[in-house]
Specification:
The chain is mainly alpha-helical and about 290 residues long. It is built from 9 helices and no strands. It has one domain (about 20-275). The chain has helices at about 1-15, 25-55, 60-75, 75-80, 85-110, 125-150, 160-180, 195-225, 230-285. The radius of gyration is 23 Å and the shape is elongated.
Length: about 290
């Protein structure tokens, strides 16, 4: 009896933990989903980010800047897609989506019996995605401020870095952690969308009303230095607040709304395919 029981124990150990199999394949799916979503949303984000900085610096209006970017995209698409501007924005969102995806994958892997398509909303995911997004966005914003600001290129002051970090932490919180919680209060099927997809669009968009003043103050400190009083800075922020907020909503909807939905959908379908293959392998093995 002991000998006949032994193969059963070994057989169970080899097949009962599908979550611990195909880890490399799952990470590859995370990467593919992240890059696909980032490339899809980067053109719109490029145009809007550039226009906001040029408008804040007084270099060009929002409309003039976006018109110039659209013209380049249509008439010289190779220059647009191979530009430093496109590369910097794509780097930010591909990196952020990838860290969010792989965090979910490794949490599922460690759990051993969780659904590999699950999207989490815990502290670990917030810490990983926010730190990655803040670091990559600071690299992007430092380059954008120098490329599209006014005057000679100069060092970005520490208060500007601090304000940008606060801005990005809010954005990440509302983009990755709030939607799974908010979706519980939203009925499925509204507009033909799932509750999570709706939350992934609404949460980061509404966040921009809170984070735009931080963004504008950071840009003002970079463009005009620290010689002005708070009253003057608040006036500059109030003048640009509404149009900049609307512009940032227009950029955040593709960035973490549409991009977030696309990333989640791509990851879900690829992970589901991996799970189906694992199930078939277990069936073949008996």
């Amino acid at each position: 009896m002991q000998r006949s029981d032994t193969p059963l124990v070994v057989h169970k150990r080899n097949t009962a933990s599908p979550q611990n199999a195909h880890l490399f394949e799952r990470v590859a799916a995370d990467f593919a989903a992240a890059v696909t979503a980032a490339i899809a949303v980067t053109p719109a984000i490029c145009m809007i980010d550039k226009s906001i900085i040029e408008n804040a610096s007084g270099r060009r209006t929002l409309v003039a800047s976006i018109r110039d970017s659209v013209t380049q995209l249509i008439t010289r698409p190779h220059n647009f897609f191979l530009s430093r501007t496109f590369g910097l924005v794509a780097m930010v969102y591909a990196g952020t989506y990838l860290v969010a995806n792989t965090t979910d994958t490794f949490l599922s892997y460690r759990g051993g019996n969780q659904d590999i398509t699950e999207v989490t909303a815990g502290t670990a995911k917030f810490a990983a995605t926010s730190s990655t997004n803040i670091l990559l966005t600071l690299v992007k914003d430092r380059n954008f401020a120098r490329m599209f600001g006014v005057g000679l290129s100069k060092a970005v002051p520490l208060p500007t870095y601090a304000l940008f970090c606060s801005r990005d932490s809010l954005t990440i919180l509302f983009s990755f952690n709030v939607p799974p919680i908010l979706s519980k209060a939203i009925p499925d099927g509204v507009g033909g969308m799932s509750s999570l997809s709706i939350a992934q669009i609404l949460a980061p968009a509404s966040c921009q009303m809170l984070s735009t003043p931080l963004h504008l103050l950071g840009l003002d400190l970079y463009n005009r230095g620290g010689r002005l009083g708070m009253k003057q800075r608040m006036h500059a922020i109030s003048v640009n607040y509404m149009k900049s907020s609307l512009a940032r909503i227009c950029r955040i909807v593709p960035a973490f709304g549409v991009g977030g939905v696309l990333n989640s959908k791509c990851r879900y379908h690829m992970m589901r395919g991996i799970e189906d293959r694992m199930r078939n392998e277990r069936a073949i093995l008996g």
